[in-house]
Structures are given as structure tokens and as C-alpha cells.
Specification:
Elements (H helix, E strand, L loop, with lengths): L1 E4 H6 L1 H9 L4 E5 L2 E6 L14
Parallel strand pairs: 1-2
Antiparallel strand pairs: 2-3
């Protein structure tokens, strides 16, 4: 788990995104307090339509 402050997240967003895509958990904090978690986006599967 990597914790980055907002300033670091703004300056190194591309690297943090790559790390998250590689499976690392990224927490973005403000003044040392966790605010958000950066995780890869996963599309929800579309419901199957019978008879289609």
C-alpha cells in the first residue's frame, strides 16, 4: 500500500495510475489523513437478455 499526499498525486498521477493498474493499492491523503483510494476501473457486466 502506497500513501501519497495530494501534491505528490498531482505531480505523479501517471506513475500512480500505472502502479494501481499493476495491483498496488494507492491511498491519496491530505495532511496525513487518508481521503480516497485509487483503484482500476472495472466495467460492470451487462445483464444477459434471454433469447437474444
Amino acid at each position: 500500500m502506497k500513501i501519497a499526499n495530494i501534491h505528490e498525486a498531482k505531480t505523479q498521477l501517471s506513475k500512480l495510475i500505472e502502479s494501481a493498474l499493476a495491483g498496488e493499492e494507492i491511498i491519496i491523503a491530505k495532511s496525513g489523513k487518508p481521503l480516497v483510494k485509487l483503484i482500476p476501473y472495472q466495467e460492470e457486466p451487462k445483464p444477459r437478455i434471454p433469447g437474444g
